[in-house]
Amino acid sequence: FMINYYYDNTNDLKPFTHQLEANDDTLPPDNALRIAPTFKEGYCPCEQDGKWILIEDNREKTVYNIATKESVKIDYIGPINRDFTQLEPFEFCKWNGEKWVLDEEQKNTFTIKLNQSKLANLLSDANNEIEILNDKIELEIATDDDKKLLKKWKLYRIQLKSIDINKLDIELPVKP
Length: 176
Hints:
By secondary structure, the chain is α+β, with helices and mostly antiparallel strands. It folds into 3 domains: about 1-55, no CATH class; about 60-100, no CATH class; about 105-160. About 30% of the residues lie in helices and about 25% in strands. The strands form 4 sheets. It has a 3-stranded antiparallel β-sheet with strand order 2-1-3, with no helix packed on it. Strands 7-6-8 form a 3-stranded antiparallel β-sheet, with no helix packed on it. Helix 1 (about 105-140) runs antiparallel to helix 2 (about 145-160).
């Protein structure tokens, strides 16, 4: 018995789609061959000039845009587009033309911004504590412990202000 091996003739590569039994006394349709395609892992049989050829098939694989690091699922037959890679990016990386490599400048910039944010939060905490203790002194309800604590918070705030926030490794003083 004969089999028609159909291909998608709306696609430029004309990939195999399915097979059906054929009548012995008919010709194959325009979008079918009567030659069985070869199947191979990672490839898709495609019709070309009346024969089957194997084309790389990466459909459903996840790839990453080398400019944006965005992940996408491949939905086309053929090699992976040159602006994408199967190598998964990591934090603070950049594409060097072959692989993802650590971007020291990006990492350092992030670390400095993180340190600046931490320091700003600690200064805000110190300012709030100092303000409350100053209110107690102004209202004459502060205890001797409050007065000692105020000095400690002021010293802590001075220590925070003396930190070079453009350094990568900063050492934060202990809160009072």
